[in-house]
Specification:
five-stranded mixed sheet
């Protein structure tokens, strides 16, 4: 991080905390914001090393865990939700999350149990062999112990909230998840982007088993649209959920938009060779992947197929809800 970026972060009272995870994407970032109220953006993973790292970092800044007053979640995935229940056992901090993910944040285990059954059926319909699916599920033990239910409140698109001495504007940016939310700190010239924009990899954009309310469009349409909406803040510094600071948000967004245009072209070329399942498309695009990455790859392939279908370039050829999902090119 160069001197100018460090100065901007210091002036905003923003302290990044990078924490190891058991997942393939590497470290996850959360951000402590000094001031009134003392605020945490995201809460890392549920591991002893994560709680130790947050505790030690706060002590070097003169704080205890008990001093945290607000927690804002960019989304309710386990590597961002992880320490919330532990923190709440030590403090009466208020927790905020998008209304689209309130159920997931407050009852993670219950919601995931319901999701896994639907995801299992969809994976089989996407052409994934049962033995591959079973191998993938073995890796779930890396997620750690079950999440306890928590209390949380909602933060909606356009809401202005206080975080430390900063005023943040919540921006609903669905795509990586239904409730992905970026937090814009206009006075500091920074935006907390969670996993919506990452510096070295492109976020996983998986097919949503249930689309957003009042919309028939699938994940990739929403993701590209919400990416474009952030171009208004192109010169802002982006603080991501994984990896380094992104010094120019607009430049990174343009790269990701172009990346998905190229991937859509690749998917279209795969389908043009003959009727195929999402699993076959994922193999052509990502190759063979192991563990939990299998679902990410298949559902991301399906999200691109969804997009091309909505654009009228391909068509789904399954006849009922129990059939394998296959696509063919529209002439």
């Amino acid at each position: 991080m160069d001197t100018e970026l460090k100065l901007r972060m210091q002036e905003g009272g923003i302290h990044p905390i990078s924490i190891e995870t058991p997942f393939s994407m590497g470290n996850v970032n959360c951000y402590l914001i000094e001031g009134n109220p003392l605020t945490l953006i995201d809460a890392a993973v549920r591991t002893d090393s994560a709680s130790d790292k947050v505790t030690r970092t706060m002590k070097t800044l003169g704080y205890e865990i008990e001093d945290i007053e607000k927690i804002y979640l960019t989304h309710a995935h386990p590597d961002h939700l992880g320490l919330v229940s532990w923190i709440m056992s030590k403090t009466e901090a208020d927790v905020y999350v998008s209304p689209y993910e309130l159920d997931l944040a407050t009852d993670f285990e219950g919601e995931m149990k319901r999701y896994r059954e639907s995801a299992r059926n969809l994976m089989f319909r996407c052409g994934v062999p049962e033995e591959l699916y079973n191998e993938m599920m073995i890796t779930r033990k890396k997620f750690g112990p079950p999440f306890e239910p928590i209390n949380a409140q909602t933060v909606k698109d356009g809401d202005l909230v206080k975080a430390g001495d900063l005023i943040l504007k919540a921006l609903h940016c669905p795509g990586h998840s239904k409730g992905s939310t970026c937090f814009l700190a206009q006075d500091a010239g920074v935006v907390f982007v969670g996993d919506h924009v990452l510096p070295r990899i492109t976020p996983n954009i998986s097919h949503w088993i249930e689309p957003l309310q009042d919309s028939k469009l699938q994940a990739l349409h929403h993701y590209l649209s919400s990416l474009r909406s952030l171009l208004s803040f192109s010169n802002y510094v982006a603080l991501a959920g994984h990896g380094d600071v992104i010094p120019n948000l607009g430049k990174r967004i343009k790269y990701i938009l172009n990346f998905h245009e190229e991937r859509l072209g690749k998917v279209l070329r795969v389908v043009s060779k003959g009727v195929c399942t999402p699993h076959e498309v994922s193999l052509a695009i990502f190759g063979k992947v192991d563990g939990w990455s299998l679902q990410f790859a298949v559902f991301e392939a399906l999200s691109h197929l969804d997009y091309l279908e909505d654009e009228g370039k391909i068509r789904r050829v399954d006849s009922d809800s129990n059939d394998a999902i296959r696509f063919h090119l529209l002439k």
